[in-house]
Design a protein that fits this description.
The structure is a homotetramer. The first copy, chain A, is mostly beta strands. Chain A is built from no helices and 8 strands.
C-alpha cells in the first residue's frame, strides 16, 4: 500500500447547492452535499476548502485533517468555521491539501418525498 | 487565493435535454439543466456557449460574464439571446472563456412526481 | 467555431445495464442507456461501438454517423445491427471514431414508479 | 479490437457508502455500490481492491479476475474475503490491476420507496 503520489493537491467543484428542505429521518436522509476525500498516502493531510459565491467574496478557508491511509466524508452542511454555508444558495468550492488526495462530490436531495443523488469525481487541477 | 491558472478555456458537454414537464414549486423544482462555472482567477471571465443539435446548425454564442473569484450557475432554460433552447430536444454544448474556468453540468428532472438528478464535471479540452 | 481538435478518437464506458422494466409514457420514460456524442469538428464522423460482456465474446461493431457540427444521442436499446443488446445484462462499451469526438453516458431508470438518472463523461483514451 | 493500452493500472473512488436499507425485489433493487471494470486488453487482469475507512486501518486486498475482452460489475456488498464491508459506513476504495483497465463507480440507493442512482468514472491515477 505504498502509493505516496496518488492524487492531486488542488481540486475544484463548480456545483454547489444545499437544498433547504428534507424528507426522511435525520441525519441520513437530510438533504446535504459532501466532499469525500481519500488520503492514500503515508502522511496526514491538512486540507483547506474555500467557498465561492455568485454575489459576494469567497469565504474560507475551512480547515480539516485527513489522516494517512484514511478517508473523510465531509458534509458541507456541517462546516461552521468561519461560518455556515447558507442553504438554498449557489456556490462552488476549491480544495487544497498539503499532500496528494482524491476528491469526489456528492449531493443527496430529499426535497421531495423520494431522494435523488448526484456525484462526480471533482476536477483535478494540474500544478 | 492567488490561483490564476485553475481550469481550462474550452469545455464540452455532450448531453443536453431540457425535460418538457415538471412537478413541484417553480423555479426550484422546475426541470432544468445548468452549467455551473467557477472563475477562481483574479480576472473577470467573458464566456461564450454554443449549442449543437442533431439536425440543424449550431446556435450561439450565448454570452455571459463570471466575475473574478465568483461562481455562476446558468440555467440553460433561461438563455434567450439569440434564442431559447427548445425543450424536449437533444443538444450538446461547448463553452469557451477568455480566462481559465471550471465547468460542471447538472440536470434536475421532475417530469415524474419525484425528482431525479444527474451531474458530471464537463470535458476539459486541452489547448 | 473552428475547433477541429476537440475531443478524442477512443472512449470507454465500463458501466452498462439496460433495466428490463419501465414506468411512464414511452419512449421518453422508457428505461434506457444512451451515449451522447458531440462532433464539434468540420468533418463527419464514422463511429464504431463495441459491447463487452461478462461471459461471452464482444459484439460489434455497431456503426453510426455523427455529421460535422452535430450531436447525436444514441439509445443503446435501439441498436440492432449486428444484434440487440440484451436487457438486464451487465455490459461495457468502447467507442471509436475517425475524427475527434466527446462522449457522455446516461441512464434513465424507471423500474420503480419514479425515475432515476445517472450520467458521466466517458473515459477518454489517450492515443 | 487490438487495443492493449486502453486504461490505467491504478484507480481511486473516494465515495463509498452501502445504504443499510432497501425497497423492492432482491437482488436487482437492493441498495448497493458497484465497481464496473472493463478489461479491453488481450490479457486476463488480476485486480486488487483496498478499502479505506474514516477511523480504522485499510482492509484488503479483495482479489478478483477480469478475463481478457470482458467486463465485470462487482457489487461491493458481496465481497467477503477478507471480510464484508460494513453497511452504513463511509469508505473509499483503490483498485490496482496488472493490466490496464477502466473503472466506473455506481450506487443504487433504495432506502426510500423510489430508487436513486449515482455514477462517475473513477479517478485514473497516472503512473
Amino acid at each position: 500500500m505504498n502509493e505516496p503520489t496518488i492524487g492531486h493537491r488542488v481540486w475544484a467543484i463548480p456545483e454547489g447547492y444545499i437544498p433547504p428542505e428534507s424528507h426522511g429521518p435525520a441525519p441520513e436522509m437530510t438533504s446535504h452535499e459532501a466532499v469525500c476525500v481519500l488520503n492514500a498516502s503515508e502522511k496526514d493531510a491538512s486540507v483547506e476548502l474555500t467557498v465561492y459565491f455568485e454575489d459576494k467574496e469567497p469565504v474560507g478557508p475551512y480547515r480539516f485533517k485527513v489522516p494517512a491511509q484514511r478517508t473523510r466524508h465531509v458534509r458541507l452542511n456541517n462546516l461552521d468555521d468561519p461560518q455556515l454555508i447558507p442553504m438554498g444558495t449557489n456556490y462552488s468550492s476549491v480544495i487544497r491539501s498539503d499532500v496528494p488526495i482524491i476528491v469526489q462530490h456528492t449531493r443527496l436531495d430529499s426535497r421531495q418525498a423520494e431522494n435523488a443523488l448526484l456525484s462526480t469525481i471533482a476536477f483535478a487541477v494540474n500544478e
